[in-house]
Amino acid sequence: MSPPEVREAVERLHGGTVAEVRQGGGAIFVVTLDSGERLVAKHGTGEGAIAAEAAGLAWLAEYGDVRLPAVHAHDEDWLVMDYVPPGPPSKRAAEELGRGLAALHLRGAPAYGSPPPGGPADAWMGLAPMRNEPQPDWPTFYARHRIEPYVRMCADQELFDAGEVQVFDRLCEALPRAAGPPEPPSRLHGDAWSGNVRWSDEGVWLIDPAAHGGHREGDLAMLQLFGAPLLSHILGAYAESTAVPLAEGWRGRVRLHQLFPLLMHAAVFGGGYARQALDAAREALRLT
C-alpha cells in the first residue's frame, strides 16, 4: 500500500486531514492527523480479515477485562483504530494482564469454534486462513479446524511425509484423552504471542486478535511460545485470580496447545516450524 492509498482510506473512513503516514510493519501504518491525533491503519490480509478483527476486538472489549485498541472505523479492506505508544514492560502491567485474561476467559463463548458475534466463519491468523465453526467439544474443534487443515497444507508442500502425517492422525484420534478434563469454551484472544502483547506507559494492551471460542489453555500456551516478557508474573497473576482454577496438568499440555500456531507457521513459512510441530505432536501423544 502506498501513502496516498493509506491517506485516502483514513480520511474517508475516519475524517480529518492526514499529515503523515509511517510504515509500521507489513500492512500496518501509523497515521498522524493535522490535529496531532495518531491512529493505526491496517489493510486486510485476505477476504474477511478486517471484519473478523473488528468483530474480535469488539467482543474481547465488551467487559473491559483487558486493554484493546478501540476501533474508529472499518470497511472490507481497512481498519482504523487507536495507536498505542510503546513503553517498557512492568511487573504491575504484567500482573494486570494476567488478571484480565483470567476474567476475559471466564466470559465464555457460545461454543468451541464459535466466531465473535458478527464475525465471519472464515477468518485469518496472520497470513493463514482460519476457520471458526462451532463444534460440540474442544477435541473435535481442535482436530477438525486447528490441526488437520494445516497438516494437509504442509503435506502438500512436502514438509511432512506419509509416516509423519500419521503422527498427527493418531494425535487427533487421541485428543479426548490428551485434552484434560472437559470445561466450557472460553472467550479467547487467539493469537496472544509476545508480538501481540504491546507494552505502554499506561499498561499492557492486546492487539491483532484471532478471537474465537476456544480453550483458555490456548492463550496461555501462545504467551509461552515465543517468550513474552515477565511471563512468570502474567501466569502467576492469572492462576491466583481466576475463579475457576486451571485443570491439573495444564503445564504439561502447553505443547499440545502450541501445536496449532506451529503448524500454521510451518504452512506459511516452512523451515524449522514443521519439525517443531512434529515434535510437539509426538510430545502431546505422550499425554495419552
From TrEMBL:
Domain of life: Bacteria
Organism: Amycolatopsis pigmentata
One example GO MF annotation: kinase activity
UniProtKB keywords: Kinase, Transferase
Protein name: Fructosamine kinase family protein
InterPro entries to which the protein is assigned, alphabetical: Fructo-/Ketosamine-3-kinase, Kinase-like_dom_sf
Family: Belongs to the fructosamine kinase family.
